[in-house]
Amino acid sequence: MKTKSVLSPSSISKLAANINKELKRMELDIKGRVTVGYWRVGRWVNREILKNKDRAQYGGHVYEQLVPIVSLSKRTLERAVHLYRTYPIASRLTQLPWSHFLHLMTVKDEKQRKQLEHQDILKGWSVDELKDKITTVHATTEARDSKKDAEKEIPQLTVVRGQVNTFALVEDEGEKDLLVDLGFRVHRGFTRIKSLRLKKDDCVRVRNDRFSKTASPSKREQLFTYKAVVKKVIDGDTLIARVRLNFRMFITQKFRLRGIDCPEINTPEGKRAKRFVEERLKGCDLIVIKTHKDTTDKYERYLTDIFYAPRLPQSREAASTPRAQGGRAGVTLNFSDPALVAEKGNYLNQDLLDAGRARLWPPSASLAGGGTPDTASKH
Predict the structure, then answer these.
(1) pLDDT value at 92 more than 60
(2) Do residues 263 and 372 both lie within one domain?
(3) What is the pTM of this model?
(4) 3 state SS for the chain
(5) Which domain holds residue 143?
(6) Could you tell me if 24 and 73 lie in one domain?
(7) How far apart are CA 123 and CA 311, in angstroms?
(8) Rounded mean pLDDT of 149-165?
(9) Which residue in 331, 309, 335, 311 sits closest to 322, CA to CA?
(10) Do 88 and 129 lie in a common domain?
(11) Of 82, 105, 128, at which residue does a domain stop?
């Protein structure tokens, strides 16, 4: 005997749709409870970390101690804390599964993240669809940021390239004898300069420890320029160098780069700045330093402009093309003459600014001279 249909086709379809809707809600409720559970885990761990936030690496130690005794990996615990910090209100976590929030948390911009979250709930995206949307957002953000960076004007330091081995004469107090001002508070008398018929403020050039009279440089800033060897890079804007004063005289001194400031060495940015300097000066037989005394500092530290030339050119074609004045285009030659390095070498202070590894210092300084005091005459 044929069974008579109780429900019409339209009624059975409507009933099935309602059942499937409830099953989907149940699935979301379960997944939402899982997400909220991870959120609560993150809250507990975060509270413990905050109790001892002043203790270095305390958070890492908490994770290491928890992993052997809970059924969660270190990565999952870290993600749970990230979830709690990103979404302080748990009620927002009930409409999407944990797997979706793992990807939403990678969007740093809160406004963009909320928009993606809203669209995800509204349109019911799969995880793969959400990942595609987030990838598009990241690409758009990176392109916009790159454009902004390209449009930023890089500060340009005004630099006076010095004359190596050129020194001014000063008068010995009370004696009226002429002394050679070698810089670094070193004044020395030489009987050989008497035959050159010189007077105070005249300049001499030294070559192979021999004097010759030379015209005073057009700018006194060109004095106090030396051949030196790097002994240690301390951070992005500070190094120790051994400076050649001539006449078998050397001085080892700590120098700070003029006109710029690099991030602190204990930060990732500071470490990158230090590596940048180390890589640029690697293999250099010599550098040339042009010194200034910072009379605004109670220790009167020596500020310096540093010029250098990498040992190896990047290509044969580049090897035949010296870098432009100011050291900002092309590739440097294998300079071994300090006078040539001073004239055409790369300018390290500006290289750090160009690479985004340093900022102008002081920030309000005029770009002419970088805002540092020119006290060469009292060097």
Answers:
(1) yes
(2) yes
(3) 0.55
(4) CCCCCCCCHHHHHHHHHHHHHHHHHHHHHHHHHHHHHHHHHHHHHHHHHHHCCCCCCHHHHHHHHHHHHCCCCHHHHHHHHHHHHHCCCHHHHCCCCHHHHHHHCCCCCHHHHHHHHHHHHHHCCCHHHHHHHHHHHHHHHHHHHHHHHHHCCCCCCCCCCCCCCEEEEEECCCCCCEEEEEECCEEECCHHHHHHCCCCCCEEEEECCEEEEECCCCCHHHCCEEEEEEEEEEECCEEEEEEEEECCEEEEEEEEECCEECCCCCCHHHHHHHHHHHHHHCCCCCEEEEEEECCCCCCCCEEEEEEECCCCCCCHHHHCCCCCCCCCCCCCCCCCCHHHHHHHCEEHHHHHHHCCCCEECCCCCCCHHHHCCCCHHHC
(5) 108-152
(6) yes
(7) 60
(8) 84
(9) 331
(10) no
(11) 105
Please give the backbone phi and psi of residue 376, each rounded to the nearest 5 degrees, phi first.
-60, -35
Sequence-distant (6+) residues with CB within 8 A of 143 are none
Please return the burial class of 117, using the count of CB atoms within 10 Å of its CB with bins 0-12, 13-18 and 19+: buried
CB distance 253 to 302 below 8 Å? yes
Pair 308, 345: CB distance under 8 Å: yes
Query: Token pair for residue 182?
Result: 């070698």
Q: Using alpha carbons, list the distances in angstroms from residue 184 to 209, 300, 365.
A: 19, 11, 26
For residue 279, is pLDDT > 90? yes
Lowest pLDDT segment from 15-29, 223-237, 307-321:
307-321
Q: Which of 210, 212, 211, 247 is nearest to 226 (CA)?
A: 247
Query: Rounded to the nearest 5 degrees, what angle is found at the Cα of 92, between the Cα atoms of 88 and 98?
Result: 95
Q: At residue 338, does pLDDT exceed 90?
A: yes
Given this model, what pLDDT does residue 114 score? 92
Tell me, yes or no, whether 290 and 233 share the same domain.
yes
